[in-house]
Amino acid sequence: MTSVLYDAQGPRAKRRNVLYTVLFVLGAAAVVWWVYDGLASKHQLDWIKWKPFLTSSQPWDTYIWPGLQNTLKAAFFALIIALPLGALFGIGRLSDHRWMRAPSGVVVEFFRAIPVLILMLIANQAYFEYTDLAPDTRLLYAVITGLVLYNASVLAEIVRAGILTLPSGQTDAAKAIGMRKGQTMVFVLLPQAVTAMLPAIVSQIVVIVKDTALGGAVLSFPELLASVRPMAANYGANTIACFTIIAVLYMALNFALTSFASWLERRLRRAKKSTGAVVGTGPGGDLETIGAPSLNIDDGRAT
Amino acid sequence: MFDFLDGYDLLGAFWVTVQLTVYSALGSLIWGTLLAGMKVSPVPLMRGFATGYVNVVRNIPLTVIILFASLGLFSTLGVKLGADGFTGINFRLAVLALSSYTAAFVCEALRSGINTVPVGQAEAARALGLSFTQVLRLIILPQAFRSVVNPLSNVLIALTKNTTVASAIGVAEASYLMKKMIENEAQLLLISAVFAFGFIVLTLPTGLILGWVSKKVAVKR
Amino acid sequence: MQLRKVTAASAAVLALALTATACGSDDKKDDASGSSGGKKISIGIKIDQPGIGLKTPDGKFTGFDVDVATYVAKELGYDAKDINFKETKSADRETSIERGDVKFIAASYSINDERLQKVDFAGPYLLAHQDILVRADDNSIKAPEDLNNKKLCSVTGSTSAQNVHDKLAPKADLQEYGGYSECLTGLENEAVDALTTDDSILAGYASQDANKGKFKLAGFKMTNENYGIGLKKGDADLKKKINDALTKMVSDGSWEKAVKANFGPANYKNEPAPKIGNVVK
């Protein structure tokens, strides 16, 4: 790989790289050995702690699969509601009209500031007071509502930043051919911004998936992470094994999500060669060039 | 109406939250910058490590990472980070876990910031004979940082709220006190509202100030 | 235009998904109508406390609380198959009752004054005590005072943890986790010296196959925990019915049987059946 950040490597630089690599591998091997040895000497790798997951389908059927379904359900609805809502607020904050800009700004800043956990608690109570949903459905709705409020406001910021990074020539050109403001937004700015924003949006999807776990922490929403507790209680407190299995599942799930999203991103990118804003890479990719002004907002909120 | 607050050290709990946030913010900024450096470095293995690290860490829920720090690092492997007593150990473990987790997001934000620096800058620096670390340190990163103040402020706000997860290993921060009060007082909503307000007080100024800073330092192109 | 296709596709997915959950929520309404006096009943339990209330890998619920709840439900006119057991977290117990999400709660729920302001209690049906669990080979803790220079573990914010802090062993180093399992891992790894909570819960953990011979109860009886059945405040009719059911459970021997079945393997010496309304301070 060539990069503009450094020159093509000569023999000395190559030797140095090999040395770094060897040192790095040795260090990593030492750490792995230390972890393995520690775990083994404290009996955390004993067969009895891992057996349930590997020899029987029961823990998967009873605890993990229902939890995974709930996680997916909540994350899916939160996402499809939060995306358009976020776009709306993001555009609202860019509006020329004060009466639109101000409320959008307040909503975004407010819901971004409160922990999702507390939003979920309040939503649950509100649904109880004003609707007659069945308790199980109400929990799901409360979790989704909390996720939507928070993530819509983060997505609004992403959308706003995405539109702001577009070269101003785009708006000028649209004006020049007589487009109205709404038309400019819908036909010129938004389509370009969406492509540019995809990596940031993908990060946010991952955050949504992980945040469903907050519903389990306080509301007894039976999601994936909450399934650890009864599981560990049954198998004699094999917490390290349980959490490892769940962590691997989350990783697989989120990896599938991000892979799908970067595939989508590549397709969209190919379809519109002409965008002004170019995002360097999708999530997990390597830096290829130092490009034109671009954007990639990440948000670390998750549990 | 607020007499249920009597006897609880609300300010003390939020002070722990602030401390967790500040230390973890510093830790994650340093480690995240190093990761971003590795990610664009000439050594393929380092690039691979940084990519792998970011992908693994940000795909796992923070609760799990913090529990791994306590159950794995401390309880099993005996890492105490130089502290005596659970209060100190847990606080340091929480800072370690929060920093490791947030660093992945700092790295991603910085990398996108590096992307906004025009190619000509790096080319000019190389033409002057600067080495990779010099290019990164003197030319690229200073400009990259200026363009990612906003994303970084998002990360900081998220970090502030993420400190609530530290109660999973018993760090006595705000949400730990909240759990205790909910258990004792049975005033679920009122208590949540008080703590929500506390977090707004902490995060809203962060967002506004850094938003202003971001406009101030942005590189006009 | 590519984007338009994507939009159309997502709109279709959204519509599909909405119809899917619409059906789903209808089903759920039937399930959970215990509070509205239908044929089903929702009961709050714990699902992570062996011997008390546990969701087992075959999807069933076992434990003393579950047996008591099942018996009471039967006396109230509900078959075992009509019971919808629900997890109620400690922090969520009062609100679940107030909202009517569950008809009543049997979840190692100790009667105390703060809770009595929010909910009513039937029972008590079991007298437990706060105790400690130590490693089987550890003989250094002979009295509660010995805990003062030891490393203790309990559940975040729980009454047991606060008791240790405030009264039992103020100088003890206290580690708090979200659940007992994490504490047990710490105990096993010698990162903590003792796990403290109600003896009934500790006994269940100690007697599990994976933990056989590793841990033992100290038997200190540091507090009195009167487990009651929580129900909506002011529902005197239900309280009386549950109390009658509990009385009957003791008199016809089912109580003793449930104790034997759930605590027997743990070698837990339980207190005799408490008298209804007799809360031991």
UniProtKB/TrEMBL annotation, chain A:
Keyword rRNA processing: no
TM stretches of this protein: 18-36, 74-94, 106-127, 139-163, 184-209, 235-264
SUPFAM superfamilies named in the record: MetI-like (SSF161098)
InterPro entries: AA_ABC_transptr_permease_3TM, ArtM/GltK/GlnP/TcyL/YhdX-like, MetI-like, MetI-like_sf
Record protein name field: Amino acid ABC transporter membrane protein 2 (PAAT family)
Keyword Protein biosynthesis: no
Taxonomic placement: Bacteria, Bacillati, Actinomycetota, Actinomycetes, Kitasatosporales
MF GO annotations: transmembrane transporter activity
Chief location: membrane
Domain ABC transmembrane type-1: 68-261
PANTHER family: AMINO ACID ABC TRANSPORTER PERMEASE, MEMBRANE COMPONENT OF AMINO ACID ABC TRANSPORTER
Superkingdom to which the source organism belongs: Bacteria
Family to which this protein belongs: Belongs to the binding-protein-dependent transport system permease family.
TrEMBL record, chain B:
Matching PROSITE patterns: ABC_TM1
GO cellular component entries: ATP-binding cassette (ABC) transporter complex
A biological process term (GO) from this entry: amino acid transport
Highest taxon, organism lineage: Bacteria
Alphabetical list of CDD domains matching this protein: TM_PBP2 (cd06261)
Keywords: Amino-acid transport, Cell membrane, Membrane, Transmembrane, Transmembrane helix, Transport
Residue span(s) of domain ABC transmembrane type-1: 14-210
Cellular location(s): Cell membrane
Keyword DNA damage found: no
UniProt cross-references to Pfam families, sorted A to Z: BPD_transp_1
Membrane association type: Multi-pass membrane protein
PANTHER family, sorted: AMINO-ACID ABC TRANSPORTER PERMEASE PROTEIN YHDX-RELATED (PTHR30614:SF37), MEMBRANE COMPONENT OF AMINO ACID ABC TRANSPORTER (PTHR30614)
Matching NCBIfam families: HEQRo_perm_3TM
Similarity comment text for this entry: Belongs to the binding-protein-dependent transport system permease family. HisMQ subfamily.
Protein name stated in the entry: Amino acid ABC transporter membrane protein 1 (PAAT family)
Organism this protein belongs to: Streptomyces brevispora
TrEMBL record, chain C:
Signal sequence residues: 1-22
Superkingdom to which the source organism belongs: Bacteria
InterPro entries, alphabetized: Bact_solute-bind_prot3, SBP_3_CS, Solute-binding_3/MltF_N
UniProt entry tagged with the keyword Flavoprotein: no
Gene Ontology biological process: amino acid transport
Stored PROSITE patterns: PROKAR_LIPOPROTEIN, SBP_BACTERIAL_3
Residue span, Solute-binding protein family 3/N-terminal domain: 40-266
UniProt keywords, alphabetically: Signal, Transport
Transport keyword on record: yes
Pfam families given in the database record: SBP_bac_3 (PF00497)
Family classification: Belongs to the bacterial solute-binding protein 3 family.
Protein's name in the database: Amino acid ABC transporter substrate-binding protein (PAAT family)
Organism: Streptomyces brevispora
Lineage of producing organism: Bacteria, Bacillati, Actinomycetota, Actinomycetes, Kitasatosporales
